[in-house]
Amino acid sequence: MDLKLKIHNSLSKKKELFTPINPGFVGLYVCGPTVYGEPHLGHARPYITFDVLYRYLDHMGLKVRYVRNITDVGHLEDELAGTGEDKIAKKARLEKLEPMEVVQTYTNSFHDKMDMLNNKRPSIEPRASGHIIEQIEMVKQIIANGLAYEVNGSVYFDVMKYHEDHNYGELSGRILEDLIAGAGEERRTLEGQKEKRNSVDFALWKNASPEHIMRWPSPWGIGFPGWHLECSVMSAKYLGETFDIHGGGMDLLFPHHECEIAQAKGATGKNPVNYWMHNNMITINGKKMGKSLGNFITLSEFFSGDHKSLEQAYSPMTIRFFILQAHYRSTVDFSNEALQAAEKGYNRMVNAKNTLNKLVHPGNEKAGNENAEAAILALCERCFDHLNDDINTAQVLAELFEVSSKANAYQNKQADIAELSLSTFDKMRKIFNLMFTDILGIRDESTADQGGEKLDGVMNLVIDIRKSAREKKDWDTSDKIRDSLNELEINIKDGKEGTTWN
Amino acid sequence: MDLKLKIHNSLSKKKELFTPINPGFVGLYVCGPTVYGEPHLGHARPYITFDVLYRYLDHMGLKVRYVRNITDVGHLEDELAGTGEDKIAKKARLEKLEPMEVVQTYTNSFHDKMDMLNNKRPSIEPRASGHIIEQIEMVKQIIANGLAYEVNGSVYFDVMKYHEDHNYGELSGRILEDLIAGAGEERRTLEGQKEKRNSVDFALWKNASPEHIMRWPSPWGIGFPGWHLECSVMSAKYLGETFDIHGGGMDLLFPHHECEIAQAKGATGKNPVNYWMHNNMITINGKKMGKSLGNFITLSEFFSGDHKSLEQAYSPMTIRFFILQAHYRSTVDFSNEALQAAEKGYNRMVNAKNTLNKLVHPGNEKAGNENAEAAILALCERCFDHLNDDINTAQVLAELFEVSSKANAYQNKQADIAELSLSTFDKMRKIFNLMFTDILGIRDESTADQGGEKLDGVMNLVIDIRKSAREKKDWDTSDKIRDSLNELEINIKDGKEGTTWN
Fold first, then answer.
1. Which residue of B has its CA nearest to A127?
2. Relative to the CA of B482, which of A441, A501, B133, B326 has its CA 20 to 30 Å away?
3. What DSSP state is assigned to residue A449?
């Protein structure tokens, strides 16, 4: 198969043609959530972004093994300094729960929200706490290679030593000297920093203080793994020491992904990942949204509208549409206006899709208008071109809006459907459905409640009949309507602005 | 709080008053599925059974930590002999997948089906593969206590040695001498048996042959844990070395649970579990249903009706009702007739519940009929008595059928609702809802489609109005109805047997 997909590789800072290591197969690793709180809008973006990538790779006939981890141990409060409490252990302590109860609660919630957002489930969802042995093995390997050292039961990665033969900063573009200079002040003050040979060193294994509840035996005593380690270990275990694509949010690029590269090269000498992809952030008034920043809105709150910053509820598909309307490498700023616009856009497109799928083409094999025909054929090609151009969902949606306008024009007889040949019309319809439903993964939320939609329509009819009956003083009919609706527990209310019901 | 719950303890073979170790808290462990295939009817029973126990304990104000594991490694094909391939590794080999892909697929499916059956999610759902270190630690402890031995990189539990100071067979009632005599023939022939000192010994750790894909380093070389070990380890980790209740299917009583006791006592010297509960089996024509037996029907097949033995689809709540209509320690034999009866019973009870909740009591504070009043008050008490009597859901449902008949009689004026005082009527209604919805966990499946139900009602009204209009030659109204319905894509059809619509 001739792949035309180009991916912006954060490592080379260029768009590169995607070539899998094993023809026909793709290994995809995406950093999953740290399950110590309700998933928020900041979680929606990476998982929707890489879901579309997964769907498109699958559409092209590639067999994708999609690994997305669950971080249930090791993510410290201040990861850069390597200090603070484990995030899950802290939550457990605050809520007087066993840490794994915290993990279970928020893993369940995360799964539920991902299902609602119509993200396909990954092939493997490994947990950090489920791979302690493998993490210990990798630490042993890095120590054996002379690139890590043990102090007081903790093991740190020796960044300076690594940098002698490698380039710490190759992914993030950070300059090691600057990092060291910048961290100088902190180094002297922060507990945990004192053990390090250098402030830029990071923990592979942390000694557990007696009160630390998540703990395992290791060659260095009782402790727990550093956060960066799990992704190196689990990606290597399930995808191999070098695999195709690693995705995640741009906030993970440094230090998390930089450290992943260092760990993998430090252990195996091999480059772990061929293509690094990073989605940009969702901001609120220009600031990153995140649990640790305290300015986040959970997905539950979006779906219910129950948050002081929200003017209304926004459905899962509104959120998905909102996110896909931007290219994944652009920032997206949250606002009610933007989400309301996305909701309108989503509804317009769903309606157009239903219109399009109901249109009846007269069957002419030759186009009535060669220009219109050529334009549609070009549009269909462009949809794939946009996906091949670093998964440009924003441009795909723009093309689908074009098709929507066409569908509406044919429906309203503002344009003649026979301007297209049957085969081109069929192709346009097929591509629309493929792009919208299968690749962008947008679900028609209205079909779930089609009974409700029809009920609205029939009720309008009934209210109309009742009005006429009352005007004609046909009390039999109007009483019958009132009584029947009462039995169905439907109340109608006559007000200034007409009759309403609930 | 004064607990009156009696539990049939498989260990004493008696009903015993339940007294938790820590007042107000309950530790509950239930053996979860081995995720190498679609969940089947045999899975529905234990998880519904212990879900009702969980709900009732919760109702009584106890704080329950409910741990249910996922077996994703170590369950051999022939567990009794300790031979054969790992079940998940075999499935992975057959399907050319990484074992953890098999695990992910069937764990997802299991979760989906449990949600559909309205089983509450456990507090913690630990995986065997996520607790290898803890399992190795327990094996080391048992070896240190002289109750296990290593041969060729595998470690076996020394049952004879254990039996010197303990009673192997205390749970199952098996006589060790009989077990040894019975296994004598096998012992000489089965590979893997040769390493054991005695045929009744069981594996704590298995040496992994080079082609075995699930493998971890251990003090005894590369291998994987024995199946029985995980439950001992994970229950102790999350519930303590001695905890309150351990549940599971009767098929797990021997050897699995017998071995759990031996492992725990062998490691800590302590009795691990105060109350052992075992649900009986679902049979097909008197035979146990099970994946390894090849005669199982998956839950998906029940829900779709797509299986040669099924005459129709059966909804999740029909399955739940069917299972709860028997006491959990009785066998239940599957047949279409039995499920159809359960479906009828379920529908009857849901309708009665809706009737009951709509009934309007006149408000008399004194009962019109003292006998009726006393009978209902006694019935309400009996619901709790039945639950306290080893969770007798069958008897609770029988009482709820009584209430259903009452509700229908009041509705049809065959009995006078004023025979009950207002407070007793309210109590009856409250208890019915508590038992049906909260404790038995039965969901009203029709409410999911309430839009549809109301639409039916309103359409009947519209068809009625149209008929009258036509009789009155009021063509304006009948035309308006026809046109409006056409717009809504609702077609009405006049036939011999009246007017229908779709």
1. B130
2. A501
3. G
In 3D, which of B112, B229, B65 has the Cα closest to residue A104?
Answer: B65
**DSSP β-ladder status, A148-151 and A154-157:** antiparallel
> Which amino acid would we find at residue A275?
Y
The secondary element (H helix, E strand) that includes residue B12 is none
Distance, in Å, from the CA atom of A53 to the CA atom of A76, rounded to the nearest integer, reads 30
Q: One-letter amino acid identity for A249? A: G
Q: Which residues of A touch B476 (CB under 8 A)?
A: 468
pTM above 0.90, yes or no: no
Q: Are B391 and B18 in contact (CB under 8 A)?
A: no
Q: What is the pLDDT of residues B193-226, one digit of tens each?
A: 689 999 999 999 999 988 788 899 999 999 999 9
| Domain map (residue ranges) of chain A | 24-279, 334-443, 450-501
Chain B residues with CB under 8 Å of A457 CB are 484, 487-488, 490
Bridging pattern class, strands B63-68 and B25-30: parallel
CA distance A50 to A55: 8
**Which two three-digit tokens encode residue A417?**
């459907």
CB contact under 8 A, A457 and B484: yes
Backbone angles phi, psi at B36, to 5 degrees: -125, 15
Cis peptide before B255 (omega within 30 of 0): yes
Question: In the structure encoding, which two tokens stand for residue A66, read together?
Answer: 């999609």
Question: What sign does the dihedral A313-A316-A322-A328 (CA atoms) show?
Answer: positive
- Model ipTM over 0.90: no
Tens of pLDDT, residues A18-64: 999 999 999 999 999 999 999 999 899 999 999 999 999 999 999 99
CATH superfamily of A24-279: HUPs (3.40.50.620)
Paired tokens of A379: 């549009």
Q: How far apart are CA B132 and CA B130, in angstroms?
A: 6
Q: Which contiguous run of DSSP H or E holds residue A222?
A: none
The residues near B42 (Cβ < 8 Å, ≥ 6 apart) are B249, B281, B282, B288, B289, B290, B291, B296
- DSSP alpha helices (H): ranges in A305-392? 316-324, 336-358, 370-388
Q: Beta A25-30 vs A243-249: how paired, if at all?
A: parallel
CB environment A426-462: b (16+ within 10 A), e (fewer): eebbebbeebbeebbbbbbeeeeeebeebbebbbebb
- Token digits of residue B289: 């249903």
- From the list B124, B131, B462, the residue facing A461 with the nearest CB is B462
Residue with tokens 């300094």: A81
**Which residues, in sequence order, are CB contacts of A155 under 8 Å at separation 6+?**
A139, A143, A148, A149, A203, A204, A205, A220
How many Å lie between the alpha carbon of A37 and the closest alpha carbon of chain B?
16
The string of DSSP letters for B263-296 reads: HHHHHHSS--EEEEEEE--EEETTEEP-GGGT--
Q: Beta B282-284 vs B273-279: how paired, if at all?
A: unpaired
Q: Which amino acid is it at A109?
A: S
Token pair of B113 as six digits: 């089906």
The values of phi and psi at residue A274, to 5°, are: -85, -40
pLDDT-above-70 percentage for chain A: 92
Dist CA A250 CA A248 (whole Å): 7
Band of residue B448 on the pLDDT scale cut at 50, 70, 90: low
Q: Is A186 exposed, middle or buried (0-12, 13-18, 19+ CB in 10 A)?
A: middle
Q: Are A401 and A393 in contact (CB under 8 A)?
A: no
B98 shares contact with chain A (CB less than 8 Å): yes
Query: For the domain B18-279, what is the CATH superfamily, name and number?
Result: HUPs (3.40.50.620)
Q: What is the CA radius of gyration of chain B?
A: 28
For tokens 């649970």, the residue is B257
CA of B176 to nearest chain A CA: how many angstroms apart?
Answer: 36
Q: Which chain A residues contact residue B461 at CB under 8 A? A: 462, 480-481, 484-485
Distance from the Cα of B329 to chain A's closest Cα (Å) equals 30
